[in-house]
Amino acid sequence: VLTAGLVAYLEGVLDVQLVRMGGSEVVLDVGVQQAKVRSARVAIEDGWGVQGLPQINVDIGAIKVDLGQLVGNALARQLNDKVNLIAAHASSTTASTRASVARFRFDLASADPAQLEAAIAQALVGDVRLAQALANRAAPGVRQDFDLLRSGVASTSDAGIDLLGLSFYRKTITSVGEVVSQTPGGVRSLLFDSLHKEGGIFVSSHGYTRVGLAGLSFSPDLGPAVGETNLIVQLREADKGMERDKLVDHLDALIVALAGRDAFAAIDGPANDLERFAQSLCPGAKVHDACVTTAVVDPMLADLRAAAMAAFAPRIASLPEPTRALLETIATHKLLAQGTFEIQENGFIGPGTSVFVDFRLDDGALAQMAIGRTGAQLSAALADILGATEVDRDTDPSELGGDRIEVTKDAAADLAKLAAHYDAFAADYQRLLAAETSNVAGIGLLGPTALEIRFPIDTANRPKYAEATARSLAQARSQRVMQMFDAMHADADDLGPHAEQVVAYGLVALAPADNIDLRVAVDHFLEDTTFGWREPYRVAMYPEHVHGYARGPRTAPIDGGAFDINALVDLK
């Protein structure tokens, strides 16, 4: 752990904003438009002042590191990346982009008048060094909220601030970047990394998006800055004629993940009985057979559905009300699907259908999962999910249990790999959490604004200084969560129809019930097509839209301040 200072000279159009707050408080924000880095140099801090560039060499493990060179490269690269991001945004829009270089709070009643006058006078012409030095020394009445390396980008237009910069987030959702929401009262910085993948064939498609968010909030009411990490995962699957099993696979996986094995067992047997009965009503039926439209409204079907729900309801009674309501929606649609006769012939089976599942793991959920969940628990949950989805539901009940055991055995090696990835993530995440709350002699509490520096090494164990990177601890946690998801996805190819679904539903199963934040949307296209006869589904009263949302009582996802995160990620 070390303290370093980066002295940077920025070129651009100087923009200084001075705001008188309540009482004796003044906020001073120094920024530039059309920013360019003219020069930057780093020094390891000695006492309270940057005294030059000492050649400090340390051993990290078996690697000899020049700290001056390492920190200089990492911070200069971060500075250049941020300024280049600003320039790229400005060149792609008609708006100009302002970079807040530093923001300070001065208390006119408690600050030393001579020091305060000098600091403000210098900052008004773009020199923030004295104000920073006073803040670093904890001088009375002087506090720095943030600097350019820890936040400070906002997009502006002729009408003023362009939605506090939040429209920028939506435009760059497919890449890596940052957006900052700034008001005189506080600042919220969102650092994001998004990956979207999609594939399919002519009649069907599937895909996923995973977004890692790291947030830093600076507010005088909250005290020190607050760091947060979130993971957002979205699943999509669509088919112009989706067969029943493909739809029910999603619904069953959600029931197992949210309610557990026992609750699923309570509805699984009755639902499969319902499916077998529905299919027995019109053996060998073809397209346009009148028997099919009659079968879907057989009175016995309603009784069987009611019995299945009656068995299921007590098993979910202890869950938080939002989760229980979502499960009831999912179970109701599962029973409707399994109790509707499906024509077994070539062509587009079932209505045109799209399934969308979106869930978020907030900072509290991720911390609890890293500390209180294990790879063995993930493996067990995934075994239950695969056992529920990777079998033929119309198999004789006496054989279904054995089929599920075989599915679990076949998946054992791959599940062990996923468990190992999870345990490695949990250990790393716990270390990052501990670092964020560490109190270091001579430096104090590190906190979320501390920067983590990473560097690769060559085959001779020599640091590659030019590739060193710096990031906040909250962002480091976000990166580690995404690495875990991506590693598990890579090793889940042989588990289930699509690897992203297996990984996603496994993580939902580990999420604390009080921190659940999950939405489900199933849309059905019920018009007849050249290849698809949808009259049975219309008669069965298939809804065009099935939507459900559960948000636990302790859920606190990163948001955009005055704006819902849904708008930021452009959720439908």
Question: Care to describe what's here?
Answer:
Helix content is 40%, strand content 28%. It contains 16 helices and 19 strands. The protein has a 7-stranded antiparallel β-sheet. α6 packs antiparallel against α8 (299-312), α12 runs antiparallel to α13 and α13 crosses α14. The protein is elongated and about 90 Å long. The relative contact order is 0.12. Residues 46-53, 153-175 and 561-572 have low confidence and may be disordered.
What secondary-structure arrangement, pairings included, does this model have?
Layout: E1 4-20, E2 25-44, E3 57-60, E4 63-66, H1 67-92, E5 96-107, H2 113-123, H3 129-136, E6 142-147, E7 153-157, E8 160-161, H4 166-171, E9 176-183, E10 186-200, E11 204-218, E12 226-239, H5 244-259, H6 261-280, H7 290-295, H8 299-312, H9 321-338, E13 352-361, H10 363-372, H11 375-389, H12 397-436, E14 439-440, E15 444-445, E16 451-454, E17 469-472, H13 473-490, H14 499-510, E18 517-525, H15 535-539, E19 545-551, H16 565-568
Antiparallel strand pairs: 1-2, 2-5, 3-4, 5-6, 5-7, 7-8, 9-10, 10-11, 11-12, 12-13, 13-18, 14-15, 16-17, 18-19
Helix pairs in contact: 2-3, 5-6, 5-9, 5-11, 5-14, 6-8, 6-9, 10-12, 11-12, 11-14, 12-13, 13-14
